[in-house]
Amino acid sequence: MENLQQNHNRVSEFVQNSYQKLFSEPDLEGIEPQMPKFQLKSFLAQAIDKNYKVTIQINANNTIYETTGLLTKIAKNRFLLATQGQKVTYLLQIEDIRFVKKTY
After folding, report:
1. How many CB atoms within 10 Å of residue 61?
2. Could you tell me if 55 and 69 are in contact, meaning their C-beta atoms sit under 8 angstroms apart?
3. Contact status, residue 78 vs residue 92, Cβ threshold 8 Å
4. Cβ–Cβ contacts within 10 Å for residue 32, how many?
5. How far, in Å, CA of 76 to CA of 74, rounded?
6. Rg for the chain (alpha carbons), in Å?
């Protein structure tokens, strides 16, 4: 009877752990928190003024992309990000940007 209770407890624990893994949020390594708008504006202005190469995380329909390049301001809260060699150019609004960091 005692063995049956131990087996039941193990099965219950296994099911509970499996359920938690199945429905928990995945570990998001490398995803930075959303920067506040005032901070984004400051960092973007500095990157443009000093012509820094930056890495930007972009919010896009439940997916986060990261790309590196040089920024150009084209209008209020609108930017162009040209990747190295200008193979890809992104048209971004400040609402699209999650995180900015200077790249060396």
Report:
1. 4
2. no
3. yes
4. 14
5. 7
6. 22
- Asked if 96 contacts 59 with a C-beta cutoff of 8 angstroms, the reply is yes
Q: What is the rounded end-to-end Cα distance, in angstroms, of the chain? A: 66
- In this predicted model, what pLDDT tens digit does every residue of 7-47 receive, in sequence order? 667 777 777 766 565 554 444 457 888 999 999 999 999 99
Contact between 32 and 98 (Cβ < 8 Å): yes
Q: Hey, is 87 helix, strand or coil?
A: coil
Q: Are 92 and 56 in contact (CB under 8 A)?
A: yes
Neighbours of 99 (CB within 10 A): 19
Q: How many residues does the chain have?
A: 104
Q: Do 68 and 80 touch, CB atoms closer than 8 A? A: no
pTM: 0.67
